[in-house]
Each structure stands twice: as C-alpha cells, then as structure tokens.
Design goal:
This protein is α+β, with helices and mostly antiparallel strands. It has a domain of 103 residues: 60s Ribosomal Protein L30, Chain: A (2-Layer Sandwich), CATH 3.30.1330. It contains six helices and four strands, in the order ααααβαβαββ. The longest helix is centred in the first third of the chain and has 34 residues.
C-alpha cells in the first residue's frame, strides 16, 4: 500500500523537495559571502608603463650617488699623526703661559692665586676688665630709743668726714640704713621712727651742698636678725 502511494506521488514529491532546497541555498550562500573576507586585488604588472619603470631606476641611481658623496673620509695614516713631542709640549704649558698666548695684553700676575688670609697672633690682646663688686665702707652709730635728732658724735662724723669724702670722690654715694624699736600699741612705729632718723641725716648733708641723688634712704625699722634696732648704718659705695 505504501509503495503504491509512493509510486503514485513520487514525481510531485521530488519537485517540491527541489523547490525547497533552491529556496534555502540562496540565503545560505549570501551569508557565506558576507562572512568570508575577500582578498585585495593584486595589481596588474602589465599595466605599468615603461616610463615609470625608467623613473624608478633613475631614482635608485641618484640615491646611490648621494650616499657616495657623504661617505666618511679615509683614515689618516700614521705618518701624518702628531708626534708625542708636540703632546708633551702642550701638556707642559702652565696657566700663565696659556693666558699670555690667548690674551697677550693682560698681566699674568693678576691671575696668580693669592694665599689665604691668616690673622696675626703677635698683637698683644689684653683681657677685658671684669666688673667686680663695688667697694663699700660701713660706719655704724648707736642711738637712744625714740631718738630722732642727731647727737654730737653723729653730727661730728657727718661734718668732718662724710662731707669731705663725698666732696673729694664724686663717684661715691651714701646709703642711710636706719633702724628703730617699735612702740608698743603703735602700728608701724619702727618704720616711722627709722624714716625720721634717715631724713635728719639727709637734710644735714643737703645743707652741706651734697647732691640729693647721692643719698639713698632705707628705713628698715625693726632688725629681726641682730635684735639691734636703735642704730644708723652709713654705707659709702661706688655708684654703678
């Protein structure tokens, strides 16, 4: 049964198959042509003119001639090389001779290197005078409790010695340190009494034409260290 049907439709079946194959081959061929690269076309050698070939030959000849003109010079023979004597003479020329050759009008003495300066240690260097402590002279006088005015001993010393010393040496000044015993029940009474004692001495010396700037007052008050309150200390000292 099957063979009978096949034989009956064999011819139409083959025609349909050929049509389908024909429709499939065309798209596949187009895809294949797009995917495969096509090599460039080689130039046709026969199409080059003889004149162009002759021009290329002339270019090659001119290039060879140019290179021949720029060829390196031939090596110098040993006979023409400078002798060792000339080299030794050049090396023996000092800097002064070289300067005279290059600049004959210049004096070579200006190019002679000068020795480095060395200070002379022959000079006598005296050390700077060191500033020491100023010389002082202390004279002390005892006073009675609550005494302010000058007694005979203190007045005599001031007039006969203190005034003379200060007049003879203008570099001296006098420091007046006054002490006093405090009065019971009075605040700062020791300072007040000691200041009054120092002012009495200062007034006496100013009356003798001693400059007030050379008189330094120090009202100490009570002497807590020595417990010797009623006294006057006169200190002669060199002014700074």
């Amino acid at each position: 049964m099957v063979l009978k049907i096949y034989k009956t439709f064999k011819r139409p079946f083959l025609l349909i198959s050929l049509i389908l194959l024909n429709n499939l081959i065309a798209p596949l061929a187009a895809i294949a042509e797009e995917s495969i690269p096509i090599p460039p076309k080689r130039p046709d050698v026969l199409s080059v003119s003889p004149a162009y070939i002759e021009e290329l030959r002339n270019r090659g000849k001119s290039h060879i001639e140019i290179n021949a003109e720029k060829a390196p010079p031939p090596p110098i023979s040993k006979d023409k090389l400078p002798s060792k004597d000339i080299e030794s003479k050049i090396t023996k020329i000092n800097s002064a001779e070289l300067i005279n050759i290059l600049e004959p009008h210049t004096q070579s003495t200006s190019f002679i290197p000068k020795p480095a300066y060395k200070p002379s240690f022959n000079a006598r260097i005296e050390p700077a005078a060191q500033k020491g402590e100023p010389e002082t002279t202390l004279v002390s006088f005892a006073l009675q409790p609550e005494q302010i005015s000058l007694d005979e001993n203190l007045r005599y010393f001031l007039e006969k010695h203190a005034v003379r010393i200060l007049r003879e040496d203008k570099s001296l000044e006098i420091q007046i340190h006054a002490y006093a015993t405090p009065i019971e029940g009075e605040v700062y009474s020791d300072i007040r009494i000691s200041l009054a004692r120092a002012l009495e001495i200062r007034s006496f010396l100013i009356d003798k034409n001693i400059e007030a700037s050379r008189l330094k007052l120090t009202p100490v008050g009570r002497d807590s260290k020595n417990n010797n309150n009623n006294r006057i200390d006169l200190i002669f000292i060199t002014k700074e």
